[in-house]
Specification:
The structure is a single chain. The chain has about 170 residues and is of the alpha/beta class. Helix content is about 35%, strand content about 15%. The chain has a single domain, classed as D-Maltodextrin-Binding Protein, domain 2. Helix 1 runs antiparallel to helix 4. The longest helix is centred in the first third of the chain and has 22 residues. About 15% of the residues have low confidence.
C-alpha cells in the first residue's frame, strides 16, 4: 500500500521549486546581447510537421497534447532554467515563467493528470541531439545555434503560425 503524501511534504516541495525557479529567473533576467533574436522551434527530420500554431506549441510543451498525428509520442525538450531562450519561450508561448511551469506540473501530478514536464538539457547542442535521436521530440534553440543547412544533425525548423524564424512576423523572439 502506498503511503499518502502529506500536505506538508507537498508544500515543502513547492517552496523548494519556487526558490530554485526564482533564482534561475533572476539569473536569466540579465541583459541579453541578442535581444530580439528569433527562437527556432525544431523537430526530428522524420516528423512530417512543418507548421504549428502558438496554441498547438503550448499544448505540446505543457503535455496537453501527448501524440503527434503520426501516433508518435511527443517528447518536448528545452534548455535548462537560466537560458534566455527558455525564459522568452515560456513567457511568449506558455504565458509562464519557470516558477509557474513547476507549479503547473506539480498541480498536474497532484490532481492525477498524466503530464510529463519537458526534459531539461544543458545546451543548444544537447537540445538538437535529443531531437535528432527521438522521432517524437520537439525543442527550441536560439537562431544563432541553428544553421538550417543540414549541418544541424537530423533536425528541421518548424514554422509558427505560418512564419519562419527569419520572417518579419515571427512571434517567438528573445
Amino acid at each position: 500500500m502506498k503511503k499518502p503524501i502529506s500536505v506538508a511534504s507537498l508544500l515543502t516541495a513547492a517552496a523548494i521549486l519556487a526558490v530554485a525557479a526564482s533564482i534561475s529567473f533572476i539569473v536569466s533576467v540579465r541583459s541579453v546581447e541578442a535581444a530580439g533574436d528569433p527562437i527556432v522551434v525544431i523537430v526530428n527530420n522524420s516528423n512530417p510537421v512543418d507548421n504549428l500554431s502558438l496554441g498547438e506549441l503550448k499544448k505540446l510543451f505543457l503535455s496537453d497534447r501527448s501524440r503527434w498525428d503520426t501516433g508518435k509520442a511527443v517528447a518536448p525538450v528545452m534548455p535548462a532554467p537560466g537560458a534566455p531562450e527558455r525564459t522568452a519561450f515560456l513567457k511568449i508561448v506558455c504565458g509562464m515563467n519557470d516558477t509557474d511551469l513547476g507549479k503547473y506540473f506539480m498541480q498536474a501530478a497532484f490532481t492525477g493528470k498524466s503530464a510529463t514536464p519537458p526534459k531539461d538539457v544543458a545546451s543548444a547542442s544537447a537540445v538538437k541531439s535529443f531531437v535528432a535521436a527521438s522521432p517524437g521530440a520537439i525543442g527550441f534553440v536560439k537562431a544563432g545555434d541553428f544553421h538550417g543547412d543540414g549541418s544541424d544533425g537530423g533536425v528541421k525548423a518548424v514554422k509558427i503560425d505560418g512564419a519562419a524564424a527569419a520572417d518579419p512576423g515571427y512571434k517567438i523572439k528573445m
